[in-house]
Design goal:
This protein is α/β, with parallel strands linked by helices. It contains 18 helices and 10 strands. The strands form 2 sheets. The chain has an 8-stranded mixed β-sheet with strand order 3-4-2-5-1-6-7-8, sandwiched between helices. The chain has a two-stranded antiparallel sheet with strand order 9-10. The chain is globular, with a radius of gyration of 24 Å. The termini are close together. It is a peripheral membrane protein. It is found in: Cell membrane; Endosome membrane.
Length: 447
Amino acid sequence: MFSWLKREPAKEEVVENVLGELKKIYRSKLLPLEEHYSFHDFHSPKLEDSDFDAKPMILLVGQYSTGKTTFIRYLLERDFPGIRIGPEPTTDRFIAVMYDDKEGIIPGNALVVDPKKQFRPLEKYGNAFLNRFQCSTLPSPVLRAISIVDTPGILSGEKQRVDRGYDFTGVLEWFAERVDRIILLFDAHKLDISDEFRRSIEALRGHDDKIRIVLNKADMIDHQQLMRVYGALMWSLGKVLQTPEVARVYIGSFWDNPLRFDVNRRLFEDEEQDLFRDLQSLPRNAALRKLNDLIKRARLAKVHAYLISELRKEMPQIFGKDSKKKELIKNLGSIYDRVCREHSVSIGDLPDIKKMQEVLANQDFNKFHSLKMPLLEVVDRMLAIDISRLMGMIPQEEMHLVSEPLVKARPPHTGDLSLRVVWTAGPEALEQMEGASLRQTEMMVFQ
């Protein structure tokens, strides 16, 4: 299905150039600003080379039994090590599904010390998380260009959240910052959004451009019920996402079984093609996404420097430091207003005030630095000159990539053939398929 998710090694030179330049720019121009103002203690760990070299990642999030693991199996067209599928809550851990020549499972503690993987910062969540984290490797053609992260099914009730033993939403935030797509899956039979699921969706805020919403198992209801379920889902999402725009919802049944109600077959096929076309663009746009994330990080680092320097300026020299610290944290909103006014910063660029107050409570304000303009000027020049130069290289990069198949063919559906989108390599494949049976056609294309 996804045999097109491959790049020819000889044609990756421009991609490597862009990513190599990004590494140099980050280390020489942005990292000094982050270290000077303790950015890593407040927001995000230092970026390593593996963060830039990582393949595009897809994060699946949803309540239990919404079909997350089955969705991965449908993309890969095979099982992966450690797979468990069932109507009960089966996936109890974060599973990164990645490419390797051999099938196997790498446990979390070994995974975070591997310098070739980008998961090293996750060790701060402790053994409770690492015991619930693993990497499943297998030689799938799909995984040559992307990686997929399966998450534990989100349950309802306070007990399940407490019993996890680690910061579940914090882990989600870490992944959300680094993945290229976040797929929220909903079951057509379970549209309720539990408290923990609401918190998980709120943790993804700020990454709205990465989120895609899927209404799964839509073939289990007829067309009249589907219309009502779709409306109910849009109403529920409007309460949680709190955006004036209407979110795009992809409707379908992403598994290999025959459709139960096939009156909406054409709709499911079109929706599936739209979603897969979106996923297909990830390898092609990987460098652009990393560039975009670096720009967002640079803007946040500048705002953070303004905030820290403002807090440092308000601290007394000798007496009353503790009381002044409590006062500044309590009145952080007025500090935000002053930063926006004096430095022409948009209020939307500032971090969440409640989270900032929580982190500041454990910080030593005496170690904060005053504003150092040369560091900020270097970042400004980076955004104005270096980033613009790299932006000009990206269209050239896309020309060097194998981006789309020449022919997109879909075999006709019968009662025992699953809903599929077949991607073929060219007209020669169609000539081979002439006169072949339906099952032979399928085998030819998917080999």
